[in-house]
C-alpha cells in the first residue's frame, strides 16, 4: 500500500512539474510576443510625424499588463498584449514606412490608408506579418516596387496599394495568394503583365491608370520575345554598310526587279488582249 501511495505521489509530482513548465513556456511566449509588438509600435511612433497627436496615448514609460492595448488605433487579443489590428487611417501621418511593423507578427489587420507616408515599402515586409488578412496602404505617397516577399502572406484576403507612386512590375509570384478577394493597384506607375490569380482574375478597375500594365483584363502584352529575336538576328549583320535584303533594307536591284515583275504582271495580259483585238 505504501509503495502504491509513493508511486502515486511521484506521478503527481511529475504532473505538477510538467504543468509548471507549460505555464512558464506560455508566459515566456507571451513575453516574447509582447516584446515584438512593443518594438513594432515603437517603430511606428518613431518613424511618423503626428500632427493630430494620435500618438499622445502611446506611452512606453509605464509598462504594465495590457498597456499597449490602451493605445489609440491599436486592438489586442483579449488584452493579452498581443496586437491583432492597427487602424490609423486618415490621421495625417507623415514620414517613411515604419520598418519595424513586421514585428507585429500576430497582426491580422493593418490600415495606414489616406496619410502622407512616403518612400519604399520594405522589401522584407512579407517576412513578418504571418497572419495578416487585410492590408490597406492606399492613398499615400509610397514609391518603389511592390515587395516580392508578400507572397508569404498565406491568409491575405484584402491587399490595397492603390493611389501611390509604386513602380516596376507586379510580382508574378502573387498568383500563389489563393485566398485573396480584393486586389487594387490603381493609380500607380506600374508596368508589365498582371498576375493571373488562381481564384479568378480581377477586373480592369483593379489595375487602372498605371504606366504600361497589360494582360489579363487589360490589353494584350506585346510579344517582346519576338522583337528580341529580331534584334539578335539583325545584330549578326551589324557594321556592314553594303549589306541589304532579307531583314535589312531592300537592295536596289530587288526594288528594280520587283518593279519590273509588277509591270510584267500587268503589261503582259494587257498586251495579249490588245493583240486579240
Automatic annotation (TrEMBL):
Keywords: Leucine-rich repeat, Membrane, Repeat, Signal. Residues 36-77 form the Leucine-rich repeat-containing N-terminal plant-type domain. InterPro entries: Leu-rich_rpt, LRR_dom_sf, LRR_N_plant-typ. GO terms for cellular component: membrane. Residues 1-36 form the signal peptide. It is found in: Membrane. Pfam families: LRR_1, LRRNT_2. PANTHER family: SOMATIC EMBRYOGENESIS RECEPTOR KINASE 1. This is Leucine-rich repeat-containing N-terminal plant-type domain-containing protein.
Amino acid at each position: 500500500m505504501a509503495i502504491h501511495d509513493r508511486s502515486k505521489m511521484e506521478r503527481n509530482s511529475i504532473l505538477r512539474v510538467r504543468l509548471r513548465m507549460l505555464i512558464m513556456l506560455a508566459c515566456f511566449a507571451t513575453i516574447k510576443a509582447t516584446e515584438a509588438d512593443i518594438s513594432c509600435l515603437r517603430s511606428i511612433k518613431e518613424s511618423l510625424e503626428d500632427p493630430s497627436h494620435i500618438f499622445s496615448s502611446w506611452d512606453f514609460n509605464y509598462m504594465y499588463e495590457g498597456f499597449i492595448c490602451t493605445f489609440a488605433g491599436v486592438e489586442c487579443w483579449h488584452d493579452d498584449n498581443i496586437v491583432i489590428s492597427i487602424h490609423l487611417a486618415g490621421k495625417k501621418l507623415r514620414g517613411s514606412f515604419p520598418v519595424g511593423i513586421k514585428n507585429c507578427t500576430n497582426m491580422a489587420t493593418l490600415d495606414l490608408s489616406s496619410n502622407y507616408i512616403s518612400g519604399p515599402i520594405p522589401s522584407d515586409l512579407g517576412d513578418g506579418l504571418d497572419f495578416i488578412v487585410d492590408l490597406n496602404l492606399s492613398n499615400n505617397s509610397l514609391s518603389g516596387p511592390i515587395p516580392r516577399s508578400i507572397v508569404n502572406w498565406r491568409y491575405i484576403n484584402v491587399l490595397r496599394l492603390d493611389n501611390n507612386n509604386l513602380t516596376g512590375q507586379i510580382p508574378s509570384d502573387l498568383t500563389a495568394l489563393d485566398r485573396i478577394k480584393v486586389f487594387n493597384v490603381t493609380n500607380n506607375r506600374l508596368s508589365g503583365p498582371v498576375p493571373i490569380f488562381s481564384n479568378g482574375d480581377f477586373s480592369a478597375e483593379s489595375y487602372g491608370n498605371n504606366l504600361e500594365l497589360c494582360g489579363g483584363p487589360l490589353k494584350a502584352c506585346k510579344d517582346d520575345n519576338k522583337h528580341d529575336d529580331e534584334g539578335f538576328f539583325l545584330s549578326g549583320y551589324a557594321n556592314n554598310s553594303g549589306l541589304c535584303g532579307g531583314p535589312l533594307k531592300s537592295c536596289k536591284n530587288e526594288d528594280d526587279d520587283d518593279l519590273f515583275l509588277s509591270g510584267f504582271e500587268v503589261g503582259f495580259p494587257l498586251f495579249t488582249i490588245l493583240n486579240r483585238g
